Amino acid sequence: QELVLLQWSVPSGNPAGSRSMDGNSWDERGRSLGTSFSYPSFQQIRARNQAFTDVFAFGDLGDHLTVVVDGEAALARGQAVSGNYFSTLGIQPAAGRMFVDADDRAGAVPVCAISNGYWKRRFGGDSSIAGKAVTIAGIPFTIIGVTPAEFFGVQPGRIIDLWVPLSAKPLVAPDPRNSNLWAADYWWMLMMGRLKPGISERQATAGLDVIFKQSVTPDPDDLTAAQGKRRRIADLELTPGSQGLDHLRRQFSRPLFILMGIVALVLLIACANVANLLLARARSRQKEIGVRLSLGASRGRLIRQLLTESVLLAGLGGALGLALAYWGSGLLVTFISPANNPLALKLSPDLRVLGFTAAICLLTGLLFGLAPAWRATRVELTPALKQSASSLRAGHAGLGLAKTLVIAQTVLSLVLLFGAGLFVRTLVNLKNLDTGFDKENLLLFGVNPLKAGYKGAALTDFYTRVQQRVGTLPGVVSATSSLHLLLSGSSRGNSIWIPGYAPKPDERMSVRVVPAGPKFFETMKIPLLHGRDFNDADNEKAPQVVVVNQTLVKRYFEDRDPIGQRIGWGQPRAEMEIVGVVKDAKYDSLRRATPATVYQPFRQASNLNWMHFEVRTATDPRTLIPAVRNVVASLDRNVPLFDVKTQIEQVDELLLQERLFAKLTSFFGLLALLLACVGLYGIMSYAVVRRTGEIGIRMALGARRWDILAMVLRETLLLVTIGVAIGIPVSLAGMRYAASVISDLLYGLKTTDLTTVGIAVMLLIAVSSFAGFLPARRASHVEPMVALRDE
Question: Which residues neighbour 31 within 8 Å (Cβ) at sequence distance 6 or greater?
């Protein structure tokens, strides 16, 4: 029975693949997609549909739920789910029981279920957990069950600590913008269903779309015209949901496909090495094969034997690779996870991985073993039977294919080194980018007093006390606050108006708004160009003021002095005076240009349900974390800290994908270089062994050791030079072809960056020269008499 996700689409009138002002994208048919629904829609679809065995709904409660256990408060991530959520998914409890519909009714006793990880982390795996009382956002709840260890929810990568029934959401996570969570115009929950046997997605969609449209027919008294238009034209769609919501796949799918291509190139290099090994072995076995053929063995049988040996080698390598995969899967999850937000993923290899590995081993064993096997069995019987050991080693004959494979390895290695260089230099460019503020010695943390019962003026008073108390701690240079951390990816935006400014046609006067505390620019070390910083006098009773950045001044004031000018936003139109201008600072992204930004005293802002604090320290900021926790606990033990980290860690989290790509491509690039050099070393060592007699004669006739060394090095560098000559245009052409895929993963570089090519070439030549020097040195130390006696 297939699990599907319900979503709706609205024709947007925008070109496919275009991007809206707020960063949302439209699908390939130019439609805007949505997955949120209202509670009445869920009720009607569940009650009237004929396509599902059942439908369940769920909605996010956020990451800042305050959970008090035995008097100790801590934050947790939660979801509100319908009573049939676990039963429809087929989840059996590890302890206690899961929700039933009776738990999700108005007036029911508040209950919750917790995840296996949260159970072990917070409760020590207590077997008598069912029935334990806890407090969530100030409301008493009873834990009734624990989910199994393998269940992480329906959003891959996202850790959920606890679940409450939908009916309990107004108790633990009320929305200040909409007091009625059950209203038809409040779309906040997601829906998934399990199709009945024999019902296709197309059949289900036809019937469900009618129910959906009836459930969202707008009432002119309840909805604005824009809302009504959107609801009327929305069409219901079903998408496969067996793998859950795919946010993590959307984030990493393209980078992982690129990495898969890189791995394939490394595999080709490794296979070329094995093919070279088999060619050398086949050359040394010519007499043995000649004897077998003379005794009646068919050529086909000998080819099958040699292919069996090749497949056996590939199989042993695949088995070792699987063992490393089992060991490294957990390490990979840690590697790609942000330090303060680990991903909930289970990447242990399964039967599909085993089957894929077995198929690749068989395919590579056959393909790269076929040429050596075919060449080994193509011998003349009489010469082969007469050959001696020394004659088998003589000359350059038979090395043409081997050298061609070495050149191919060099080409592929250069391509991979070039790609790795692009991503490493991108990471360096972003890390060295001027953010407009000082990232060093900054401790960040957040608090959410709303969950502890603070409202209105009590909230802002609490924030003020925290900032003042933290600012007096030993080792603290200064402390400030802001609603959203710089470079956190979160933001608040508004459309502004400026007296005397006439907007251009289709101009959107949108700005980022940063509610901030006193000494914000001093603490963050954002240069103040004109005017003043915020201070304690900028409170609710004082005239409303703002500080703006350079981008806003250039865009809207041109040659006018902005100090004393007024701007405003929202309804009613309250004007605010500009009292300062600061240097541009990166706000929500390192890659994007700095937006027009307005800084506002937080005591003059609204909807401050949480607050972040920035603490400038004289020493390592992490040493002050215990003292900061004690300060907040002394003010209220029911207000825990969240997002505790340094500004450096904040930037590192923002560069997670870039760092992942730089590390993995560098690893595979260096691995490819190592394999290519091993192949080069192998073929040159084999060539030296075969030419022992020739080298002995040369030295007997007066050649010096340096002459022999130079001769072998010239041959080595000739192979590398040919590989580089072919590899440079191949690399540039390949990256130009891949520009549409990787260009937005780069920063400050083009896919044809010649500096990166030059660095890759120099690295390749340097390491290859060392690989060729070892057999060259061995050749130069051949004793002439020993070589001639062997000959």
Answer: 9, 10, 11, 12
pLDDT in tens, 104-118: 998 899 999 999 999
Residue closest to 756 by CA, chosen among 432, 264, 415: 415
> Which regions of 20-138 does DSSP assign to beta strands (E)?
31-34, 37-38, 52-69, 72-81, 95-96, 111-114, 133-136
The conformational region for residue 231 under phi > 0 = left, psi -120 to 50 = alpha, else beta, is alpha
Type of residue numbered 374 = W
Three-state secondary-structure class, residue 735: helix
pTM for this entry = 0.73
Query: CA–CA separation, 444 vs 739, rounded Å?
Result: 37
The verdict on whether omega for the bond into residue 449 sits within 30 degrees of 0, i.e. cis, is no
Per-residue pLDDT tens digits for 394-428: 444 456 777 888 888 899 999 999 989 999 999 99
Gap between the Cα atoms of 468 and 632, Å rounded: 11
CA dihedral defined by 345, 348, 353, 355, rounded to 10 degrees?
A: -140
What b-and-e string marks burial along 75-89, b requiring 16 or more CB atoms within 10 Å of the CB?
Answer: bbbbbbbbbbbbbbb
Please determine, for residue 652, whether its predicted confidence score (pLDDT) is greater than 70: yes
* Cα angle value 304/308/311 (rounded, 5°): 135
Q: Are 593 and 550 in contact (CB under 8 A)?
A: no
CB 266 within 8 A of CB 668: yes
Q: Which residue has the higher pLDDT, 66 or 290?
A: 66
Q: Among 119-128, 138-147, 344-353, 541-550, which stretch is predicted with the lowest mean pLDDT?
A: 344-353
Average pLDDT over residues 195-210: 87
Give the three-state DSSP class for 359: helix
Which residues in 407-428 are b (16+ Cβ under 10 Å) and which e? bbbbbbbbbbbbbbbbbbbbbe
Q: Which residues contact 159 (CB under 8 A, 6 or more apart)?
A: 77, 115, 117, 152, 341, 342, 343, 344
